[in-house]
Amino acid sequence: MRRTAFIFLSILFFCTNCSKDFKLIDDYKETTIAYGLINTKDSITYIRIEKAFFTEGDIYESAQVADSNLFPYKLDVKIKTPNSEIVFDTVTIFNKKGGIFYAPKMLVYYAVTKGKLNHLEQVELIITNPKTKEITSSKTKVYTIDRLKVSLPTSSISFDEDFPEEMNVIINTVSYTRLYQIVMRLNYLEVDPNQPDNLVYKYADYNLAEVISRPGMVNKEFYINYDLVGFAAALSNNIPQTTVLERYYSQHLEIIINTANEDFLAYQQSTSSDYSIIMHRKTYNNIENGYGLFACRAIKSDFYKYDALAKRAIINIEGLNFKSSIDDYFSLEDE
Question: Rounded to an integer, what distance in angstroms lies between the CA atom of residue 179 and that of residue 262?
């Protein structure tokens, strides 16, 4: 649940000729904010649930205080499917990145959902406040992308510019999926020569494209282009330079297709300046009696061999200190 939001409650300021009395801060109403993305393949589903807040002081300082955002008691949270009811519990995660809100701890609701969510089912999120008896809810349709096909013009990923027709990834659209984000990922090994037993596996992404399909569009092919210059630039921008660490690349590139349904697409378009010249737009909200987003996503990935042109380019990127492949590194270790 890479998206979060918070609400600044409006200050109503007015005055009239007949009265000098005015109310600077409106009465506070406890409002539930929920964010959840369901993936039918996930073993565990997490939902972030907090409350809106206001303060007479600095809102950014208040946002750093956990009590400003969190309910002081546990909520009753469940997802209803046509055949079952999934009850959520709470857990604290300790690796939240810093930002506007408090960190590194964050309380989230979770439930084991593996095998409990089926393709094209409509599911309902129900949040009940045990103190106020207020109910916040949302519905979304879940899906799988088992039928999504990813293919290449050749048996491997080619970066040979003499054959540009081969430099693309082909995907076909599937039902109930509106957003497709296509990523080419290089997995690599990072080694500190001074501590050779301390091996760290990392990755860097080359974002190829974002495709939006029309409603109801099924089995439509999209050709996603890539090139060697863009690939090398993505690695250079996403991998920190070093003169100490040694790096070794994987013999396969990973192609990842991140997808999302109509609800997520609507939310993204309402929050991104890329989709409109309008400066102020209402953020998409599909939470009844609250704010936030409840949507479905799915991910597909596979590994493909790639040519020597890209491998030479990886080694030649200045400052990244790539030596050779991971297989070569372990072959040297075995000698």
Answer: 8
In this structure, the answer to whether residues 106 and 184 fall within a common structural domain is no
Residue 8: what are its φ and ψ, rounded to 5°? -90, 115
Asked if the model's pLDDT at residue 111 lies above 50, the reply is yes
Please tell me whether the overall predicted TM-score, pTM, comes out greater than 0.90 for this model: no
**Does residue 27 belong to any structural domain of this protein?**
no
Domain finish residue from 95, 126, 142:
142
Cα–Cα dist 190/318, whole Å: 16
Q: What is the CATH number of the domain that holds 122?
A: 2.60.40
What range defines the domain where residue 116 resides? Answer: 32-142
Are 101 and 199 members of one domain?
Answer: no
Rg of the chain's alpha carbons, rounded to an integer? 24
The values of phi and psi at residue 170, to 5°, are: -110, 125
Closest among 185, 209, 189, 208 to 197, alpha carbons compared: 189
Dihedral of alpha carbons 304, 310, 316, 318, sign? negative
Question: Do residue 237 and residue 159 come from a single domain?
Answer: yes
- Please enumerate, as own/partner, the contacts of 137-141 that have beta carbons within 8 Å and a separation of 24 or more: 137/287, 137/288, 137/289, 138/34, 138/286, 138/287, 138/288, 138/292, 138/294, 139/286, 139/294, 140/38, 140/261, 140/263, 140/286, 140/294, 140/295, 140/296, 141/176, 141/261, 141/296
**Intra-chain end-to-end CA distance of the chain, in Å:** 44
What pLDDT band is residue 280 in, cutting at 50, 70 and 90?
A: low
